[in-house]
Fold these 4 entries.
Entry 1:
Amino acid sequence: MANKVYTFKIAGPAGLGIKSIGQLFSKILIAHGFNLADYSEYPSLVRGGHNTYQISFSLDKVFAPHYQINAFFAINPGHWQQHQSEFNSKTLIFSDEENPESGRMEKGIFYNLPLKTLANEIGSPLVVNTISLGVAVYLLGFDLNLTKEIVCGFYQKFSDLNSRAIQAGYDYAQTNFPKCKLDLKTKINPKTDQQLYEGNESYGWGFLAGGGNFYAAYPMTPATGALHFLAAKQEAFPNIKVIHAEDEVGVANMGAGAAFAGARAAVGTSGGGFALMNEAVSYCGVAEIGLVYYLVSRPGPATGLPTWTAQGDLMHAIYSGHGEFPKVVMAPGDIDESFEMGYQSLNLAAKLQTPIIVVSDKFLGESSASTNNLSKIKVKIETGDIETKPSQNYARYKFTPNGISPLTIPGTPNGQFLANSYEHDELGFSTEDAQVSQKMFDKRMAKNKLAIKLAPKANLFGNNTAKTLIISWGSTKGPILEALKDLPNKDDFAFLQIKTLWPINPDIKNIINGFSNTVVIENNGTGQLVTLLKSQFDFNPTKIHLRNDGRPFFPEEIIKLLK
Amino acid sequence: MTNNFRSNITPTWCPGCQNYLVYAALQKNFADLKINVDNLIMNYDIGCAGNMADFFKTYGAHTLHGRSIAMAMGEKIVNPNLTVCVIGGDGGIYGEGLNHLVAAARANINIKVFVSNNFLYSLTTGQTSPTTPKGAHTKSTPTGNINEPIHPVELLKTVNQEIFVESVDVKDIPKLNNTIKRALEFSGFALVDITQECVAFGKQLK
């Protein structure tokens, strides 16, 4: 029998530690043996507003956060009100206010939790979040000493204050909410190797594991997490350089310079910044510079919904850069794949000598989940075809059958060449010759074939005799897999997760053609994967389910769509 | 005479173009300072000066218009042992790429920028540039340029007083050589603004 998934959520204004308490609670859950998937929402401001953090946890794997809440904590009065569609008749709602008058609350069981009074007794109005955590820990029947140990490790110099806050919440709940206690099985393991990572962090760990040594970015939500993470890692990894440059154009061209000078380099941004980088993508294409672009999408157009999620940049990535040149576009579906693509993209950039674009989004990049300790994973670093002892007549852009020409790194004797943004000959010098231009174009495009061979293959989940094939890409993987856990007719479905979106592997056509019913699910408004697949082969999906309001799909919603 | 730095390609500049003087002065100084050709990266902007890319045989990048300094910064950050130079014009360095120029000056990063400043966009046949005098009649300002020109030396000195930034007339060959030499020897960001007259379109400015 599968273990139940519970979902706890906390809400309140920005600046009161909603996210930090959510992450702390996640660490406590992990120490008690739980797997989890987190999700947070916040507006584009620094103080005030309405932030939320929710955690779905179970002793089984949790692929995505659930929509329906078991316990909700409003750290300021009223912050529960806009979440009533997430409540059911059994949802426990804790808020610092007298029971609301009838009519205001539609569903759930309301409890008055006097956070402000309790916080004042402890001596700091800022511990309302930690008091709430104390209540949650009581409800779950968790080990109080283990909890306090984790809390103290998290808060360091404020450990005494927060330790008392945990105790106050716990004691208050024990006295006032004994009926709310959930009978939960735990698997306490304080030494567990499971860790909590945001998608941007796991990408960063993959980048480090893959020998990445140059990362440049300009702050842009929701990609900034990777910049912060890698910038802070420069002390522990002294050979990496992390640069916050003047703008995204500078970032992209600096990245090109770094890669040209021999670095394993990546640049990070969201859709708007990537638009500014487009000319450099094209340059790296023609000059055959292997640079990775980590594109963490948010809803556009323009500034759009800066702190929300969308998969609206698939075509933007595939068609990035003017002119025609080879590139790889791939999309991780979860925290582990963010890590994998962190190093795979560097390997591909080195081997294919062309732009590699990793497309994530806010939902994946800024949500946390538990997984193995990524800092301990060793991966294979592939450096591609590097010429260390070039002959006198070395030609950087030598015509080769597979399009890959051996590359010299500046500093190598006799290896001189020009990385030219103009069309060029085998030495890199500009040419306007018709034959050479055609031949050089063909040489570059030949790399697409190799790219198909080297880039990550699609995942097929479930039975290939199933009635219906779900097709998707990127961060929708979690909600789809979580929905398939609970779907009554789950054996009717298989799920194809396309990891490399460009170039499209011909096997994808064969897989899709093996099913008579196909359902495409995408977190965008026009069904960009559908458009893409239609451009590749005769494809007519039975159904297309799109969501484009800045919110991710939740498993409950997908179950409804598939039933 | 053998020359370690020159390619086999004959320059394609107009007869009488003053970029020949810049090209010669750079080669002389690289040789005089015994710069190792294996450790030299030249970054070229787009424009007449940037076309020098095909006439050198060193590690080089003929970058996008305006982006030569950003490219150079990436190279220097990754490998500080390299001598990293930038060749560009007033359009690419002071116009399209001004943000990167200011960033490089702020960082005082040890790259050497040589700007062929002819007060015009010339490869695109003579439009107004950031250094074109106010009132000048060019193809893109037929009724006269309404903008004040940029003064690169004064501008960069307000950004960072620690950097090397000087202007020199390309026709003063001893001074040109000496300024390039001092720029190459300087331990930090250096920009030499090399003023010149375009033989093809310069008469618009008279």
Entry 2:
Amino acid sequence: MVLNNIEQLLEKYNNGETSLKEEQQLKDYFKQETVAPHLEMYKPMFAYFSVSQEEKFTKDVPLKSNKNNLYKWISVAAVAVLMLGFYFKSPLTSAEDLGTYDDPEMAYLEVKKSLEMISKQFNKGASSINYLAEVDNTTRLIFKK
Amino acid sequence: MKPKIMTQTEFLHIVMPFKDKVFRLAKRLLVSREEAEDATQEVLLKLWKNKTKIQEYKNVEAFSMTMTKNFCLDKLKSKQAQNLKLVHSNYQDNNTSLQKQLEFSDSVNWVAKIMEDLPEQQKMVVQLRDIEQYDFDEIAKMLDMNNTAVRVALSRARKTIREKLTKTHNYGVK
């Protein structure tokens, strides 16, 4: 390319008036081994532009789908519910402490009272099953022979 | 017609062509490679979450570049507020594998350094024009500027780079 032309293009270039095509001409010119000595300083600039153009993004493209996110949050919620369950459950079990007696005499009397009550209630309950004997009587009647 | 749900494959098909451009713009602004990678992932994740919406956009790429710009500028602002200094140690990771490019290595890195000192808007304009080769209308839309303002910013940036390179060239200052 004619040097004169290159100088004109550089003038336009520095004023921000060159087209992409003209800029490509300049890039091509400065790619040469030897350029006009007084234009030498442009060489690293255009070289840098060409080199920079080649740089690549080498990391992965991160794609997280929303579905996975939902599952993640559901599991977090489930764990939270479980933890809350344990938290509210534990003080209830310890609250079932009903106290104790220090005096053995008193303890004996209380146990006796409790057992009496159980036996009384048991007998009362058992007496209501007495009518079941009637079933026996009836079956005997039927299967007599 | 009701928009159907986009699959991951369809989404990747849309973002693959410009994910590198998002990354490079992020790196231009944030300088550090790791931070630019994080920013890119953040932007792509936001796009994925809005996948039902992006089907309605005519130009997802321009929209994504604007998102990247906003995300990075916010990041820089909060960083400034925290008074943290940017760490930049990765000029080397350009593809300077070729022997011919190695020769330039120093002066090419010097251009990177010069660009770092440009105001943010000029950085972005040079990035989008000289590196990504977008046309002026696209850049104006992405950066929410008018066409003339883009040209003015670009001209200033190019002249600054030229001046600093001329100085280096003449005096051998590195």
Entry 3:
Amino acid sequence: MTGTSPGFDRERITSEIFSHLVELAALELKADEAEYLRHELNGQLNAIHELENIVIDDQLPISSHGVPYHGATAAGLREDVSEPGSLADDILNQAPQLEGRYVVVPDIPHRELE
Amino acid sequence: MRQALCDLPGHELVKRLRRKEISAVEILESVRGRIEAVEGRAPTTEPYSAQPADLERVHAYITLSLDRARQQAEAIDRALAAGEDPGPLAGVPLAVKDIFCVRGTRSTAASRILQDFISPYSATPVARLEQAGALTIGKVNLDEFTFGSSNESSAFLPPPGNPWDPRRVPGGSSGGSAAAVAAGEATISLGTDTSGSIRQPAAYCGVVGLKPTYGRVSRYGLIAFASSLDCPGPVTRDVTDAALALKVMAGPDPRDATAANLPVPEALGDLDQSAPKLRIGLSPDYFRLQYPEPSTGGLSERPVDPEIEAAVRRAADLLSDAGHTIVENVPMPNTRYGVPAYFVISRVEAASNLHRYDGVKYGYRYPGEVADLRELYRRTRGVGFGLQPKLRILMGMYVSGEEYEKDYYQRALRVRTLIRRDFERAFDPHGDFRLDCLLTPTTPSTAFEIGALYGDTVSMQYVDLLTVPADHAGVPAVSIPAGLDGRGLPIGIQFIGPDFSEVRMLQAARAFEQATEGDEWRRIQPRVVAAASAGV
């Protein structure tokens, strides 16, 4: 293989795009982590670049999962019956901060309505 | 040579137990002794610096639950003494990949963000295996949230070593599973396969790894990575055990709407009965591999390791001699797109699934002062997640973003259709090939050294080149040992079948096992097992 494949761009994820993604992902990164992650993201995008060159008929359906479900194999709907839960305390006990049976969170960012 | 109980397959243990030649407690003690001999220091999330001794040990387990296993073993021995049926897996030591919830135990996903999480319930496949009499020895290591192919991304270090050569990786992400079974630290393990995470480590460690059809086994209680691909399945010593374990864990589950409403085939309990003559295909697209060239964005072609190709060709010859029909030159042209499409689909699903870790409901929470909830999220996730989850979230965010989604995510889902159609064409009972299964290599190479690839996420993902197409298509696949390479490392070969054809596919694998029963390599033990047996 010689030359560069059409549409190939080594730096798709610029620093600006990267910062936006980090904000969306709700992550806080150290500088060395950020540098590594941006480098790997660009490497991965270059590795999947060939997907863009596959000729795909617009009529080709998507596969959101491999095995098709149909009447015979799909799980039926569950009966709508209430079952008493017994795990509430076990589940609450996993919360990092509790007050009584309330989960505690810090201030939720908000704006006063005018 | 008389084998230790911990080195026997599960069906043999059950047989001896039912004859009352051995007890479940004796089996457990044999496994406990092996763990003491080969395991080494326990992996932790403390700052890690590798010691020379780490490269001689297996480090498979994040958490041992030998007390739980002892109670289970004693209950089985009591049931046997009382003349009751102790279950189809009675006394069989089980290692659970630490991505499954087991009630009352730490369920970490090998991540700091869940390092102290105690699950309030058990996953369906775990509950079914325990109900069948398996002894839960503990929770085994994996790549963090299953994100990797070498088990090096775990937050719990030292990473597992390959029992055949502990300086090498056991594969991943079910690396602890395959290492534990190969080393005699468990007889069966419950793993998961999203792009090859059961089959690739099974191949590297010389054991059997079965990825069932998507929907055959419930995902309830499995900590999710890519929900349209994640598939629980067994890692075992032989094909018979894989079938027995699948028979126990498979079947409809009202708690998972993707669990197919199909009965579990009885024949999984006796593969050797009425084994049919099969049509088995070979595809050139599983021998000529396409890798990306980072400098140009193009592709270069490399062959699969010649020793692995030779093992597949020999298997085809042996199966042909046994009366099966080998069909050559089956085209699977979209195999090469498996990894690129996976890079997109799995990251979108991972980013979505990982949003639940926020420091509020469970798991790690940043303990310092924060201004508001958003800062709590950022700091908790910044400290709690390792590099690989962060990378997968960021990639998922990018390729599902509004501006890029059509070019990446929608396109990848269409490419998945093309991959699925390759299999439909090969298995079509009225088509040109009419295959019962495909026979392929499991991996392009045998186990690599710890540190050789880790950090290079593109090369690491391409280790799954030959396993990921079956995940995209949802079809079942199994890797079985087929010999050792020139360095004494295990080679795995793979059978892939149509939807819900596990019985036939495992019968093909079993036919190979029977044809090679007398092979010299089957008598060679992994290095750590040989050393433990010799009392070194």
Entry 4:
Amino acid sequence: MSTPTRTPSGAPAQMTGAGGRVGDDAQRPDGVLKVRGEFAYSSDLWMEDMLWGVTLRSPHPHARIRSIDVGPALAVPGVYAVLTSDDVPGEKVYGLELADQPVLALDVVRYQGEPVALVAADHPDTARRAAARIVVDYDVWEPVTDARVALGHPTWNQLHDAPAEVTELSRESANLHPHGNLVRHLKVRKGDPEPTADVVVVGEYEVGMQDQAFLGPESGLAVPGEDGGVDLYVATQWLHVDQRQICAALAMPPDKVRLTLAGVGGAFGGREDLSMHVHACLLALHTGKPVKMSYNREESFFGHVHRHPATMRYEHGATRDGDLVYVKATIYFDGGAYASSTPAVVGNGGTMGIGPYVVPNVHVDCYGAYTNNPPCGAMRGFGSVQTAFAYESQMDALAAELGTDPVELRCRNAMEQGSETPTGQVVDSPAPVVELLRRLEAMPLPPDVPTGDDVDLRDMPGGVSNTTHGEGVRRGVGYAVAYKNVAFSEGFDDHSTARVRLEVVGGEAVATVHTAAAEVGQGLVTVEQQIARTELGVDQVTVHPKDTSVGSAGSTSASRQTYVTGGAVKAACEAVRARVLEMARSVVGRPVVDLRLDGGKVVSDLEGVALPLADVLGDEVVEETLEWRHRPTEAVDPETGQGFAHVQYAFSAHRAVVDVDTELGLVKVVEMACTQDVGKAINPQAVVGQIQGGTAQGLGLAVMEEILVRDGRVQNPSFTDYLIPTVLDMPPMRVEILEYADPHAPYGLRGVGEAPNISSGPAVLAAIRQATGLPLTRVPVRPEHLTGT
Amino acid sequence: MRLSCTVNGTPQQVDDVWEGESLLYVLRERMGLPGSKNACEQGECGSCTVYLDGLPVCACLVAAGQAQGREVGTVEGLTPAGAAPGELHPVQQAFLEAGAVQCGFCTPGLLVATDDLVHRSLAEGRKPADAEIREALAGNLCRCTGYEKILDAVRLAADRMAADPTAEAAR
């Protein structure tokens, strides 16, 4: 079998690294390759004689396809293949949780950008020009663009107004899928169904559509195999779930569809769904040649799912003293044209939608709907990011209504170990919500708004645009706290597989760790090495390339890989260690009770034994492959939402300090501070990196990031018009890490990646609100929201 | 068309370049130098930053033909020729140690931009202040790190390069 190379002389490298155990700031094994420009990302792959694949996409958000004429494209010199849904040999629809999305458009297109046809040619521009010559005759339909309208529910636009009329969908095409427009409705019912309270605050909130905006484009290389199968090298988050869907579409067994992880340039949820995977395989199998596909930035905006926009109505009731009595919430997630991860997003939004607080009476209705907007699915912190804006805004509104301090109100109602969640689950590991907030309060604040002649414009909102020297600038400080489930929930069989080998190479004991867990930049490969070094007492640990020749590791999402694949690697190492210690006992020739592996030796302190591991192993290769599971969760009751839904919670809190130019509506975030309980920091430097990066994405959603969709059409599919924070937008950060062990988790660790992405944005929003005195119920906050113009 | 230029000090010549190709495409797909990255291909993200006759540019915005007869420096040329295996340029080493590399897709462009900034500052006899670092790197998007560790890395690199004035720019 031929393997792809970046250049004819290169080859995919295994990653070896020395030094760094659990708890150390170990360096990434792929770091040297990355700083030398030699790390092979999926868009870097190259093979002699390869073709380029491109995708023709629907310009309409909702239309019926009358006909497709590929003839003009096939006539372009240099074109090798033009494919449509007729050329998909197996299942013509796919999906993560529900198979409802066409590999290539069937009769109806349901979103702008839906793939319709594929072209393979000898140059990417030849392929693009040929794709433009495909003639598609569309019968254009009116798009459904509001989740509530899609469900036939009343819309509410104004606070306290009577609900608006239900907008009737009269057309035949109003049902976007045969099973209707409802993807999932989750109900949470706890306590008194009709509670009353001294003080009541009601709020309606909206969160715009955020993009993952990973920098490495969707890309990969499919290579036809001599056995009639295909090898796909691709950037993804879960090789085995991709393999399952590709096999179905190609009508091939798993041994004919082999996946290897190529270098991944960020993911953040946007690579959970298939993008070019099946397309490249189809073109490769059809032409008999390697086919590379690589989206440009505009196509990337159409090529992956986004964060669900949300519309939320919350009612909080409390006693005069500030004890929460009840929370009622109605939450709508716009899932767009296909289901993707919408059921899980609804699960998170519904079960954790009131935040890390103890509330005796809870009534939540959480809906996910189909519309003709872009499909929405996984993005870091999903379901929780959206609801946190609402519940934390409500906590601030309630504090204002009660005339109490927002942090005091939060602490008074904070969840702690032993508390019961709205789903009836008892929190059975540390939940230091109060400490997270108190530590933030205790941190020093940055200096006041600069004024006078010595103002540096770069410190002002508006920066060197010279819009203010401090006139009209007001300071605000805001707090927020959040929690998020770690790993897959609601009864999912969440597991990972690890193969660990120990052998002597060049006179030294070397461990090899082989998992299919996707490294997307977060540093799992480093963690795998740290665990193997810790458990096996060796320095040299090689991380085998990630592929489907070992069992599934589950998804790199839900903050779960350090927990679940980390757990699998630890367990496999322990199995290897047990065998090695048994070998050592036969070498020693008598039972030794305290044998352990350390520093490349088999050691017994009691007996004063220190055998070189290489001598004990000799020519023996000790290898163990294990499947590992966290303790099971269970599905929630369909009528009440009650159940042991989540295996672990992660907690974080933020304080944001902002300066707002109230005349121009410009915001400068002056400082962010974060406290987070991580259970055990396996790699403290990487943990801080996750917190800082997650904070940036939350800040982005609060003040700048939104895919603008009008009538189902994306208005800003570029980095010119979709803004993500630059180094000028990100302020200095303070980070404090707490390590309260979760007794159920390996090393006591807690998943890290998502929580800081959840509490960051609401803190920024609270700070802007404090600076301006405006209610601010929608993110991202735009200048016109602040100036009223 | 035929394109001749010098890349990382080595003369390069490629044939059959289509006039519509960018310098980035030619580097990545025709010269076997994919270190410069293709995150946006519209001049917004800085991941393709290279030196062109000593000045940092977005290679995606340079038509291949514009590089005719000129000197190009890429991330692959940062480590000096003849360096020992594993030896890194101080900017590369600082990014690694500071934890400024996660997915790494922005890294090549940031390394070139940082190398340029530090050399410009040191040529003026000083190290770059934080506000200058932020201005100089404002055209390089990173989605993973929140930039804090990138700032740490630039400060670390500037400290070390100030202490070792023999380090040459990879221009």
